[in-house]
Request: fold
Amino acid sequence: MTHPFRLGLTGSIGMGKSTTARLFAEEGIPVWDADATVHGLYQKDGAAVQAIAQAFPQAVQDGAVQRALLKKALVEDKQAFSRLETIVHPLVRAARAAFLQAHAGAEIVLLDVPLLYETGGEKDCDAVLVVTADPQVQRERVLARGQMTEAQLDLILARQMPDAEKRARADYIIETRSLDQVRVAVRDLIKTIKAAHA
Reply:
């Protein structure tokens, strides 16, 4: 294989995706995090700041995108999401390409993308891993963070592909019941992929 095996990681909010990605990193797998990339683009002097300032002037303060203000602008304007995506998506794609180039010698790389299926990103992966949990557990996890209301969570879930559909399309599924169980599942999956693509 000329390039690393690209394993896409996705799952709805609160399903344990960040924890799973961290466990892959602990096993020595290079991880590209779409959310962290976007955070970087939004920071002071980030690559997206100027374009976002033009499209959503109310969302930029002190040379950085304020996510809470941007969220407010998106809620108020139905067309805002697609305008934001035309700014952010090309920058994210470029960052991912740079990551893949930097890790061209790796056996496996993990692409951690929350909206993988929603953005058609699975086409750039050799396989997709979906993390899942019981809907009640998911809701409890998200609300326990204390960063959003039930209404905000419902809004996010409405934008995300239903968990059942993600699972139906996945190549691999890990149910995130406990940290130890996920760690074992991650190690097993790495072995499986290495054996299949040796």
Remarks:
- The chain has two domains: 1-30+108-198, 36-102.
- The CA atoms of residues 95 and 152 lie 29 Å apart.
- The beta strands are 5-10, 31-33, 60-61, 64-65, 108-112, 127-132, 172-175.
- The first strand starts at residue 5 and ends at 10.
